[in-house]
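ok so for the tutorial part 2 we go from a plain amino acid sequence to predicted structure tokens. step 1 is just haveing the sequence, like this:
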Amino acid sequence: MGPTGKASDPTVEPAAYFIDPFPPLPQADCDRLDKATVESLIAVAAKKQSLEPALLRAVMKQESGFKPCAVSIRGAQGLMQLMPATAGLLHVEDPFDPEQNVQAGAAFLKQLLGRYKGDLRLALVAYNAGPLRADQPANAPYPLETQNYLASIFAQLGMGQAQELVNDFETLPAAPPPPSEATQEPPETPSAKSEKNSQSDDPAPTEKPAAATAEETSPRA
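step 2 — the prediction. this is what the tokens look like for a chain of 221 residues:
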């Protein structure tokens, strides 16, 4: 566009008709956040969204390496690598602000877990490659980048690529099985307890004399 707001002659200013859809991407040349700051951001966001802190930590490490200024070649921004459209839907004013970015990233991950009914694998695929990729048939192969993404996060979590996540990643040890009926002893009734007590109070039986014992054990005529 020319200074008057009208289209200029393309033979004079050909570049004026091409406008970048995004501003120049900043360089990820900042330092990583310190551990205390990272853990504080994770703890607050995980508690608000009822997520396991280890999950947020693994996603953040994989997405940005804990660098708040990180930008991907696709334009994802900040610690949790939010796409501009996603950041806008989540009302993020500054995607490079660590607190805003982590809060929005946790909220987005929570939404994906709800959408896929707790299936962590599908939620992570959607977070990395988009819901359209996660909605593909199960036999459709994922891009190598997404496969490595899944493998890295699950390895950080110390688990295999489980299909289903129970209670939003709040994994608890299973309760021990109840004892079988065959090994259970029936409770004693009051009468049984009374009988046992009376038996224990009786004096020990005395041994019979040897002669009587011999008479009883001999065959009868």
